Amino acid sequence: MTSPIIAFFNNKGGVGKTSLVYHLAWMYFDLGLQVIAADLDPQANLTAAFLDEDRLEEIWESNNPNSYNTIFQCVKPLLSGIGDIATPNLEKIEDGLNLLIGDLQLSGFEDELSSQWSDCLDRKERAFRVISAFWRILNQAASANCADVVLVDLGPNLGAINRAALIASDYVVVPLSPDLFSLQGLKNLGPTVRRWREEWQERIPKNPAPDLALPTGKMQPVGYIILQHGVRFDRPVKAFQRWIERIPDIYNTEVIQEKDQSVLPPASDPNRLALLKHYQSLMPMAQESHKPIFHLKPADGAIGSHTYAVRNVYMDFKELAQKIAARTQLLLPDSEVFNQSELK
């Protein structure tokens, strides 16, 4: 069985997506899984969350042409026309938690992915190698590292890089903010992902190379997560509640296309995976320590009331990780597995 590839995507930026992927990667590692976090966002924010600046400089400024330890270096031979993808060398964060390093140069792959998309219709083998590059890199990395799951961070746009990354994904989780911009982004995202899925299904039979394995382009919606809502007495303030109440209908209609299905209240919506608080002063504390919030210790500044907040964050992300696992056939060790019926 191949490792499930789960993409986290919204074409609206600033919703806390990268922080979400970072914390879930650590949570799945804490729960006993072999995890790969893959940074396919040319801004490389996920990479910056895991690695300090000195290590980033060492990697990005390296003159070694064979150090295939960033996503761009892995596609560069294909882009240069001198070969196919290179096998990725992942950055070990812990034994069992590895990072496919992002690269600002990845934006240079956008035009090639865009032009080769149409060439797939002309049965050109190189076009299929280019479009499937991310999927083949992620699968090689997962196989080489015996990964149980691959979590993919994407940039906030509907460009060719994200199209290829989503085609490589088995599942899609949508992070949202409770505001007008996220809702408009959701309306764009749903139809676009469906169109990409349909267009890829049209292209797959035109692959001229029988030995070239291709992704199925499954892109199955898992659900949405609302992040960074304002809190007053543990309840979203009215301005945010207005948008929260509109999300179930829009997600139901635009993403999963079940227009006739009755829409439940936000708190009962089965498509809502979590509503996560803005963790305020804990987040900069975690960023400075290069740790997830739930690993903060008194030595990091998590003292007094912060101690209880850290514990609550752990429970929030554990529950979220379990929900996503149940909906993606991801097996958690022993007692961490629980029934889909328990999630509703």
Output the radius of gyration.
Answer: 20 Å
Quick one: CATH class? Alpha Beta
Into how many domains do the coordinates divide? 1
CATH superfamily: P-loop containing nucleotide triphosphate hydrolases
Oligomeric state, counting identical vs distinct chains: single chain
State the low-pLDDT regions, or none.
Answer: 335-344
* Overall mean confidence score, pLDDT: 88
Cα distance spanning the termini: 27 Å
Q: H/E order of the elements? A: EHEHHHEEHHHEHEHEEEHEHH
Named at the architecture level, the CATH assignment is 3-Layer(aba) Sandwich
**Helical segment tally?**
12
Classify the secondary structure makeup into a structural class.
Answer: alpha/beta
- Give the number of DSSP strands: 10
What overall geometry do the principal axes of the alpha carbons give?
Answer: globular
- What level of helicity do the residues show? 40-55%
Describe the structure.
This protein is α/β, with parallel strands linked by helices and about 350 residues long. It has one domain: Rossmann fold (3-Layer(aba) Sandwich). It has helices spanning about 15-30, 45-50, 55-60, 70-80, 110-120, 125-130, 135-145, 160-165, 180-205, 240-255, 280-290, 305-325; strands spanning about 5-10, 35-40, 90-95, 95-100, 150-155, 170-175, 220-230, 230, 235, 270-275. An eight-stranded mixed beta sheet has the order 3-4-2-5-1-6-7-10, sandwiched between helices. The two termini are about 25 Å apart.
